[in-house]
Structures are given as structure tokens and as C-alpha cells.
UniProtKB/TrEMBL annotation:
Similarity comment text for this entry: Belongs to the binding-protein-dependent transport system permease family. HisMQ subfamily.
PROSITE patterns: ABC_TM1
Membrane-topology descriptor: Multi-pass membrane protein
GO terms, biological process: amino acid transport
Domain ABC transmembrane type-1 residue range list: 26-220
Subcellular localization, as worded in the UniProt entry: Cell membrane
Protein's recorded name: Polar amino acid transport system permease protein
GO MF annotation terms: transmembrane transporter activity
Organism lineage string: Bacteria, Bacillati, Actinomycetota, Actinomycetes, Pseudonocardiales
Keywords: Amino-acid transport, Cell membrane, Membrane, Transmembrane, Transmembrane helix, Transport
Organism whose genome encodes this protein: Amycolatopsis saalfeldensis
């Protein structure tokens, strides 16, 4: 038992790594996750609209993109983009793999978020679009102002879940070889573990990940509960209620 505690819960090593975890690892993890999620969301909206298009030349590229980036392991995508495009992108991003790591995470996120948006848009009743068209709106305007906002609102819990997935995917950029000041949570914990042979720094990194993801998980449950409550519609009174209320003449 003492050996287990010393290997995984050595507080000397945990306190030693915590300053770097919070000052460098946490900052870089949040930068990678938030930037990738924002870029991925921006790419996902047109991707979802293309996937719903009746035109094959729009629908098929979106389908192929989604199938490829959802079908490949995330680590393979990161390595192909980070290392395969490194030479080509060097005039733009320089020698730092940081932007390429963000690009890879963004492209992966876009495929998943695009499917989330597509399912949300498809869940909106067709009558919403028909009513908007009846009011004189064009198809694109009705989709932009009426259908898409409702679809996005319905998939908010899934979007938060996807952000959690992006946070948990950020350690994979470790394989691109970031500089010391670019390390995320896992890399910092892994480096000290490699130097000391003790697993406690990785446990400390895991604790910080939980501090990020657990509140987000409860936020998902809260949003989902609020949306479920908001969708409850009061049942229309039946004929018996109308008679009992004296609203139907005998």
C-alpha cells in the first residue's frame, strides 16, 4: 500500500509539478481547446448546411469530409497534418508545430460538430420553414434566421460534450514536439514522470483535467434539463374539459 501511494500519490512530486501545470499546462490546454473548438464550429456550420443540401455537388464533399475525419484516429490526423504539412506550411507558421496542432484539432472537431448541427437542424419541424416561406422569406433567409438558430439551441448539450472531447484530445499534440513553453497538461506531467520514474505528476495532470471537465459535464446536464423543461407544452383541453367549463352550449 505504501509503495502504491508513493508511486501515484507522492505529494512532493505533485506540489512540485502543480505550478507548471497551472501556469503553462492549463493555459496551453485551454488555448488549444478553445481555439480549435471555435475554428471547428466556424467550419462546421457551412459543412452542416452543405450536408443538408439537395445538390449533390455540395452534399457529397461534406459527406466525404465528415467520413474521413470521423473515421481516422485523431492521432493519425494530427501526425499527418502536423508532420506531413510541416514543410509546406513553414513559410506561413514558421518552425513551430503549435498552429498545425490547432489546425488538426479544428478539422477533427469540425467533422463532429458539423454532424451535431446537421442533426439539430433536421430535428426542427418542417412547418417552421414552410411558415417562414409563407411570410415571404427566401429559403436561405428562413434557414439562417429561423431554422438554424432553433437547431443549434437543441444541440447545446452535445456541443458542450464535444468541447469536453476536444479538451481530452489536446494531449495528442504532444507527438508534434512542442517547445517547453508550449507544453499542455499531459506533456508537463509526462516529462516529470519520465525524469523521476514516479506517476504522481500524471495524477496531478489528471486532477487538473477533471477540474475542467467535471463542471462542464454538470453544465451539460443542467442545459439538457432546462431544454427538456422548456419543450414541455401544456396539453390542449379536450371536449370534456370544455363542457365542464361551460364553454360548449348544450
Amino acid at each position: 500500500m505504501d509503495q502504491f501511494l508513493n508511486t501515484f500519490l507522492n505529494w512532493d512530486y505533485i506540489w512540485q509539478v502543480f505550478p507548471d501545470l497551472l501556469k503553462t499546462g492549463l493555459v496551453n490546454t485551454l488555448i488549444l481547446a478553445i481555439t480549435s473548438f471555435v475554428i471547428g464550429t466556424a467550419l462546421a456550420v457551412p459543412l452542416a448546411i452543405m450536408g443538408l443540401s439537395t445538390k449533390r455537388w455540395l452534399r457529397w464533399p461534406a459527406r466525404v469530409y465528415t467520413d474521413i475525419f470521423r473515421g481516422l484516429p485523431a492521432i493519425l490526423t494530427i501526425l499527418v497534418i502536423g508532420q506531413g504539412l510541416g514543410t509546406l506550411a513553414r513559410p506561413i507558421v514558421g518552425t513551430s508545430p503549435y498552429p498545425l496542432g490547432i489546425l488538426a484539432l479544428s478539422l477533427i472537431a469540425a467533422a463532429y460538430i458539423g454532424e451535431i448541427f446537421r442533426s439539430g437542424i433536421q430535428s426542427v419541424e418542417k412547418g417552421q420553414l414552410e411558415a417562414s416561406r409563407a411570410l415571404g422569406m427566401s429559403y436561405s433567409r428562413a434557414m439562417l434566421l429561423v431554422v438554424i438558430p432553433q437547431g443549434i439551441r437543441r444541440v447545446l448539450p452535445a456541443l458542450v460534450n464535444q468541447f469536453i472531447s476536444v479538451v481530452k484530445d489536446t494531449p495528442l499534440v504532444y507527438f508534434l514536439g512542442f517547445a517547453t513553453d508550449q507544453r499542455e497538461l499531459f506533456r508537463i506531467g509526462q516529462d516529470l514522470t519520465a525524469n523521476t520514474g514516479n506517476q504522481s505528476p500524471l495524477v496531478a495532470a489528471g486532477i487538473v483535467y477533471l477540474v475542467i471537465t467535471v463542471p462542464l459535464t454538470h453544465l451539460v446536464n443542467f442545459i439538457d434539463k432546462r431544454l427538456q423543461t422548456g419543450r414541455k407544452v401544456q396539453a390542449a383541453p379536450d371536449d370534456g374539459d370544455l363542457v365542464a367549463g361551460g364553454k360548449v352550449a348544450s
